[in-house]
Here is the input.
Amino acid sequence: MSLLKKTHYIQFFCLFAYFIGVDYGYCQQYDNKTLEQSAIAFVEPNVEQDPDSQLSITAIPLDSRIPARDCQSPLQYSTAMTPPFDTQVTVQVRCNDTLSWTQYVHVRIDHLYPILVSATMLEKGRVIQDEDVKIEYQPKRFRRVSYIEDKSILIGSRSKRNIREGQAFTQAHICMVCKGDTVIIIAKSGGLVIKTQGEAQQDGNRGELINIKNSRSGKTLRARVIEVETVEVNL
Here is the structure.
């Protein structure tokens, strides 16, 4: 018997049972959306939550040609996978009526992590302000090691290229100290701290060593970028 004919038969059987007063319990009808949501509900309690992420659990839509089906008893859910679930789970949804039916629902699990992206189109050379940065959540598989996670690195930095709206920030997009910038040089020797000015001879970001020309002496020295337009040297 085809699925469509079997479905129509069960629907007629449930309707007939209703009119003759026989209690067949549930006799509920399940469309694709209901099956997808129930499969998600089955999976959700068995997913391990990462406190640093947001959880997204979705079902891959079933074929729209599948008709709604009735079941006189509670649906049974099972999976061949062992919890806790992490990525994708195939859930078997089964109706154990005399005219039984089975549906497989694929449920996808994504752990969404925050990343810093551009809130607007940023042109090359623009000084990045707080309102230019926003947080978006993306699946772990889309994250890159080069993404900037510390917002303080971005604020006051300059864009080295055009950055489109929604694009994740990377070290390649910015310079905390840009070539030609006037920077503060902090020189440390024991407990002594001296501040002077210099001119950056190349681009650099936090932790990088770059060449700085001392404005007072004219000498070029190697200094480490520590903040926006600020470098440090040890005497």
